[in-house]
From TrEMBL:
Primary role: Specifically catalyzes the decarboxylation of meso-diaminopimelate (meso-DAP) to L-lysine.
EC primary class: lyase
Record EC number: 4.1.1.20
Ranges where the Orn/DAP/Arg decarboxylase 2 N-terminal domain occurs: 49-290
Quaternary data: Homodimer.
Protein name: Diaminopimelate decarboxylase
Family to which this protein belongs: Belongs to the Orn/Lys/Arg decarboxylase class-II family. LysA subfamily.
InterPro entries named among the record's database cross-references: Ala_racemase/Decarboxylase_C, DAP_deCOOHase_LysA, De-COase2_C, De-COase2_N, Orn/DAP/Arg_de-COase, PLP-binding_barrel
Species of origin: Paenacidovorax caeni
GO molecular function (one): pyridoxal phosphate binding
Swiss-Prot/TrEMBL cofactor(s): pyridoxal 5'-phosphate
Keyword flag Disulfide bond: no
Length: 425
């Protein structure tokens, strides 16, 4: 067993037979805090951010962490202290940013269904920009802002109609998607925005999808967005910032996405060539900052051999790791303590009463009941998507920094899961 077994997880490696996160033996954390347990490497998050910062060295850029990927307060605090703003998609996320000490003026608010109450909350907090996703939303935001005697800073999310070549559920930049304003309607929408007294046009944005592993969709999107900027500015509407969204993929199972700095070198060359290199830029990375900084530890409860399939039943489930059930997504699964000996092929499944409750299919593992496993790439879209289905309290979360491991969220008890419920008298 050696480090290449964990591709993409720079701060997780075997030392001898035991898997470590930075200087901390993961089995020790499982022992101390129980399982399932999310464990994040602070260094891995900061390294991922540093790759973007290198890529943008010398440029005007605001990196807005797309916090829905992992919205734990300690993670937000880490990125806020590193200078990040935040891309939010709800009023609840804004409350989290403020609770974590984030700066409202560096918040941008995306999402197709912002309510009036959320708009008021964001205006009162003084967020940096609303990424407006439809013509109808523009009218409502104008009304809400005027009602508060305010002017809302807006960017319009354009749908560049490029294929991000990713899973259909996480592709967002094609014509058939619910996101953004159609390419052909963009200029008219900007003209409307510029005419509304409650709005102040500040930028343009796009976000074409998630888990993108190729450069070409980004290059296409940059071209299409710059074409639009050219047209909008020719019509007399100044575009202060250009926001290219997030979406860069990570290695789950052999994918080879470009590194953030290499990707941005190419995209900035295109911006330079077209004369937009000195614009204020924004990006909204989520998964690529946190995904491979985290693992979820789980214990093998039972091995259940079968005629067609062998099952390895573990104590983590679809409520803790929803991506396989939602998108048939792949997570690597490795032992915390490597055993020698023959492997058996298992479907690794959780205890939840759903056939969709599987974490990995056809995995070759040498395991006994009581063994501990790490589900890899669990830093993004796992804890933040977790539910209490089957009245399973949400798992605890640990942030590792060198040899220190800090509990950043205790395990939820069953009582926690129903503490706000009311029995009618
Ligand atoms: C989810 C989302 C992101 C981040 O996507 P990743 O694939 O996690 O980088 C960025 N912008 C918007 C508008 C989003 O909805």
């Amino acid at each position: 067993m050696n480090a290449p077994l964990l591709p993409g997880h720079p701060h997780m490696a075997y030392r001898g037979t035991d898997l470590f996160c930075e200087q901390v033996r993961l089995a020790d954390l499982a022992q101390a805090h129980g399982t399932p347990l999310y464990v994040y490497s602070k260094a891995a998050m900061l390294d991922a951010l540093a790759a973007y910062q290198r890529g943008f060295a010398g440029r005007k850029v605001q990196i807005c962490y797309a916090m829905k990927a992992n919205s734990s307060l300690a993670v937000l605090q880490l990125f806020a202290r590193a200078g990040c703003g935040f891309d939010i998609v709800s009023g609840g996320e804004l409350a989290r940013v403020l609770a974590a000490g984030g700066d409202a003026s560096k918040v941008i608010f995306s999402g197709v269904g912002k309510t009036r109450a959320e708009m008021r909350q964001a205006l009162a907090a003084g967020i940096g920009c609303f990424n407006v996703e439809s013509e109808a939303e523009l009218e409502v935001l104008n009304e809400v802002a005027l009602g508060m005697g305010a002017q809302a800073p807006v960017s319009i999310r354009v749908n560049p109609n490029v294929d991000a070549k990713t899973h259909p559920y996480i592709s967002t930049g094609l014509k058939g998607n619910k996101f953004g304003v159609a390419h052909e309607r963009t200029l008219a929408t900007y003209q409307r925005a510029a005419a509304l007294p409650g709005l102040r046009v500040v930028g343009i944005d796009c976000h074409i999808g998630s888990q993108i592993t190729e450069v070409s969709p980004y290059l296409d999107a940059v071209d299409r967005v710059l074409d639009l900027v050219q047209g909008i500015e020719a019509a007399g509407i100044a575009i202060h910032h250009i926001d290219f969204g997030g979406g860069l993929g990570i290695t789950y199972n052999g994918e080879t996405p470009p590194a953030a700095d290499a990707l941005w070198q190419q995209l900035l060359a295109k911006l330079d060539a077209r004369g937009y290199g000195d614009r204020q830029l924004m990006i909204e990375p989520g998964r690529s900052l946190v995904g491979n900084a985290g693992v979820c530890l789980t214990e093998v409860l039972y091995l259940k051999p079968g005629e067609q399939k062998n099952f390895c039943i573990v104590d983590a489930a679809m409520n803790d790791l929803p991506r396989p059930a939602m998108y048939e997504a792949f997570h690597g699964i490795v032992p915390l303590h490597a055993r020698s000996g023959a492997t058996t092929t298992y479907d690794v499944v959780g205890p939840v009463c759903e056939s969709g409750d599987w974490l990995g299919r056809d995995r070759a593992l040498a395991v006994h009941s009581g063994d501990l496993l790490a589900v890899l790439s669990a830093g993004a879209y796992c804890a933040s998507m977790a539910s209490t289905y089957n009245t399973r309290g949400r798992a605890a979360e640990i942030l590792v920094d060198g040899s220190q491991a800090v509990l950043i969220r205790p395990r939820e008890s069953a009582a926690d899961t129903f503490k706000n419920e009311i029995l009618p008298s």
